[in-house]
Amino acid sequence: MTDQLDTFASDYGDAELLHQPGNLPHPPLSVDAAQVPLSGGTDPAYGEVRWRTLINGTPDHPRELVLGIAEFGPGDRLPPHRHDPAEFYFGLEGCGTVTIDGTPHRIAPGIALYVPGGAEHGTVAGENGLRFAYGFASRSFEEIQYRFSASA
């Protein structure tokens, strides 16, 4: 047993520490959502939803995920659509309904929803509006191809 521990200790001593900033594929990132301008709200295909993309890659500097905050006024909507990567929603403020493949799901603070890749989904905010965090395992938001059901 002692021989095994000595071997493990010497192997560990030669190991490369993966969590050192120099070994990471991207440097750590801190983003203040209040400093990120809103996008959206102008293209009728997307409904009235507006969003802040907080973590995003570019062709020159891709990342492993996309993170943002979607914001809806009272009764605002994001029409039914599909995209290939799976997505999550995490309720922050207000409430609403997210319909995934025909099944309505309540979203409100503290509620997480998983939207499988390729699933049709759309959102309608409640009477006080809605804010939720969303995320994709994608290199950039621009790579995600939205396919709206109304235009299919």
Summarize the structure.
With 152 residues, this protein is mainly beta. 8% of the residues lie in helices and 41% in strands. Residues 69-125 form the Cupin type-2 domain.
Report on this structure.
The structure is a single chain. By secondary structure, the chain is mainly β. It has a single domain, classed as Jelly Rolls (Sandwich). The protein is built from one helix and nine strands, in the order αβββββββββ. The chain has one helix at residues 2-13; strands at residues 39-40, 50-55, 66-72, 77-82, 87-100, 103-107, 112-115, 121-136, 147-148. Strands 1, 2, 3, 4, 5, 6, 7, 8 and 9 form a nine-stranded antiparallel sheet that branches. The model is unreliable at 4-18 (pLDDT under 50).
List keywords for this structure.
9-stranded antiparallel beta sheet; RmlC-like_jellyroll; 9 strands; 1 helix; Jelly Rolls; Cupin_2; 152 residues; Cupin domain-containing protein; mainly beta; RmlC_Cupin_sf
DSSP strand count:
9
Number of helices: 1
Question: What is the helical fraction, as a range of percent?
Answer: under 10%
Q: Specify the overall morphology.
A: globular
Strand % is 35-45%
- Let me know the largest β-sheet: 9 strands, antiparallel
The first-to-last residue Cα distance is 65 Å
The ordered string of helix (H) and strand (E) elements is HEEEEEEEEE
Low-confidence blocks of residues: 4-18
* Total number of domains: 1
CATH architecture identity: Sandwich
So, the CATH homologous superfamily? Answer: Jelly Rolls
- Mean residue pLDDT: 86
CATH topology: Jelly Rolls
Q: What integer value in Å does the Rg equal? A: 20 Å
CATH class: Mainly Beta
- Which structural class do the helices and strands define? mainly beta
